[in-house]
Structures
1.
Amino acid sequence: MFELEQELTALGAALEWPPTPNLGPRIGSHLRAPTGVIHFPTWWGGRSRWALAAAAVVIALVALAIYSPSREAIANWVNVHTSFQQVPHLATPSPQPPGPLGQRLGLGGMTTLPDAQKQLTWHITVPSALGQPDEVYLQPAPDAPALGEITLVYAIRPGIPVAGQTGVSVLITEARGAVDQNFFGKMMGPGTTLEPVTVAGHQGYWIAGPLNDFFFTDASGGVRSDTVRLAANTLILDDGGTIVRVEGNLTKAQALEIATSLG
Amino acid sequence: MEGRPEEESELFSRAQRGETAAYEEIVRRYQQLAFRTAYVITGSAAEAEDAAQDGFVKAFRALDRFRPGAPPRPWLLRIVANEARNRVRSTQRRLGLELRLAEGFRPGDAAPSPEAASVAAEDRGRLLGLVNTLGEQDRLVIASRYFLELSGEETAATLGIPEGTVKSRLSRALARLRARYEEPPGV
């Protein structure tokens, strides 16, 4: 096997990669731009987004009129151009950014509770203490643990400070699996403490301070890592085979109250 | 010490204090790795450029969560790779990886004979073709370890799996590739 590995390494050195774009200056100017102003230069040469959008519509109509393409071809065409148009839509750094809060956190696709429940084979628990979530995200496997992962986003809730610049007070993430205290050890930053707790007879862990990553065994038996989205405190609970993670600038009492109200 | 590159820890500290110039330098240092990693995942240079760009912007916003002194590569790769995977998912398609051998590439120090160089290029071409026939998981783990030369920890961050899974997945991928490679060509 060693010989094959050597050949692969040599092959890697002989590959021709696409040229790397020079991202530094354009990211720098984006970060320095005032809120709401986009400064990403593109090969379109600095035209306005509205002009680009108008041009795209005209081109689309002309192309459709001339070629009468199939439905599949239209879908492919739209896909290509949609992905191109994503560049100018980057959110700007702002304490209260426009648009859905969870889109900035990489939680998956935005959905609703009823639609998410239809797609999952297990029951989503919602804490009555927080009411209905402001946003719901579903991440299917394999990018999420086996049987999928759901995240409930709560914007502003009385008595709970918003975490950093996220605009989010509480995140609740749920997936099927099992958690083991031994997995936490190396994932906790200095000054972070872990305390086993029990919520309605279910084993849980109160983690005060930042937790970098979170490991657990998912429904397929594989060990998964998941990133904790808010640099805040975390309560992790094994709720009858559903791992529920409550993140936010919460006190232990607040987190336990939320966990107790899950149903 | 004039002209010595600034230590990364100092660069990250400055960036964490909001100095965009320091972050620009971080981007400059890591943009090739980030772009190529995203390219391996998306199979598209345009999507990879967008993913790397968005990833770097998100990483800047998440700098307060970066632990001082921690290795930055796994942290950045995790964010960029996640962005690339999101793009693949949102476009509902993944293009095949279309890596080619660089023309005129001469491995090693000594110039090989024309015959030897031709055979080596042929072998590499065949090996690359076989890598491209592997399943996506196999192709990604091999490309991460050997083409991008990522460590086990970095590969785990890129693929979003534990390091132990990287080892087992890589072992199985190599076994499958070896079996195909040892078959006589044309079988």
Note: Confidence is low (pLDDT under 50) at residues 105-112 of chain B.
2.
Amino acid sequence: MNAVNINSLTKSYNGTPAVNDTTWSLAQGSLMGFLGPNGAGKSTTIRILMGFLKPTAGSATVFNLNTWQHATEIHARTGYLPGEVRLYKNLTGQQTINFATRARKLKNQTEAIRLATLFDLDLRKPVRAYSSGMRQKLALILAMMHQPELLILDEPTGSLDPLVQQSLYTELRNTVAKGRTVLFSSHTLAEVQTLCKDVIILRDGRVVASTTIDKLRKDAGRSLIFTLKNQEKPSSNHPAGLTIDAQRNGKIKARWHGDINDLIQWLAAQDLHDVRIEPPNLEDLFLSYYDGSTTR
Amino acid sequence: MNLALLRKHAHDFRLHLVITLVAVTGFPIMLLNAITAFDWEAFQAVLRVPFVSQLISALGGFDPSNVMNVTALASFTFVHPAILVLLSAYIITAATRAITGEIDQGTADILLALPISRKRIYTTASIWVALCCPLFSLFMILGLWIAQNVVTLDQPLDFARIWLLSINHVAMLLAIVGLTFFVSAISNRRGLAVGAVVGVIIASFVINWLAAIWPAIKPLSHLSILTYFRPFIIVRDHELNPNDIIILTTIATTFWLTGLITFTHRDINVG
């Protein structure tokens, strides 16, 4: 069963689409990366999922409930961290949690206190005295304190120090291990590839890739540099998976897509002085999605 | 209504509310004390000056020099510009902060992510502000009661007439509440919402004042909320004008409901 279903979803402002005919789903119990540059439509999609925005066309459902018509029911089962965290400055951290506890009709604050301890957040201070990182931590607690079935995080790590980031990653992995679902929005691939198995990449309001990190790695190809001993060019025709980008004084820069054994076999037939094969460069592929040179 | 949200409104506005209540209680005492300090005949003469008479008439709905007694004087506290500004400021601050202020400051993302429907958010904020309106009138009457006991008055205040005019007063305040919630529900910027409501209230006052000195403007006075609050007439006739109450309640309900429908159907994009 899917926690989220998005079907031909479009959201336009004055005729300009911010999200354009996107269709994707998020399976329950998964942790999915939601990637795209700023302005790609990630936050707009998330705001539709939260029922803050009404779709122009198409539909969005969470737990099979229409996000516009059943926002309150969805909110009871969902945690949300906004992209830009703004909290009530006149309240302390504890008062903010007390308010959320009452609004969510929670019986206790055990989980909120556990998270505050985990993130090392002093709840006695007024929010106006908090740094941006502390506000981010408090907003994360508000999103997670009711142990929601679906957690939607819009660029959650921007203001967090590396130690807290690691704590959050561990927390998210535990959350998914318990069968809950996480949608993790980000504009950097590095954190998503350490955390998520599945990714959706958005550009200009459209889904340009809906795939797995493994598949991305496979598609990314390897870059290699090899130097030939006595010749400028390889002795035999190179295989189809090899694309030569540059060659100078016997030093050849190339990219390989395909089975690595075929590459090794072909390299063995060459009169090599040196060879360096680098791991798949996911970032390059990711950037190619961003600049529009790749669409899947 | 949502109790958690109501508690938050009470927490957010407790100081502002206490200051306003102290001011509306203290104002009648100060005003009656100041008025009784003047020579009564000299005071009547001042009221007969056309500009003063027109100004008070614009505020109170009737030429005060014709009905001037202690109770009519006391009723002037309900329409005094200082009280009008003070109460409007409270209503506008509270109503705009609860709706458009959340959007403008970006806290709407946190609030709307809670399992509280927009309808309840709007209704709870409205209940908080609307409940304050009779409280203000009540504290003004309390101020008058204290004034009667601490200031030497020529004759006792007629509280039966004052209670009656307080109904009209609450209806006028509720009309401002309805208007403010409507403007707040359709706005993304709190400053604009505040400016719009203040503009309407000032325009109401100016229309009333102009209508008192310039008969050609008289038909326009029906567009002014303040036209339907006439304390001097209530004090003079010892009866409410049901039309005034109906019109003010209709204004309040129409604006409030339109605001509710707008707020529950609009996109929310924070600051």
Note: The longest helix of chain A spans residues 162-177.
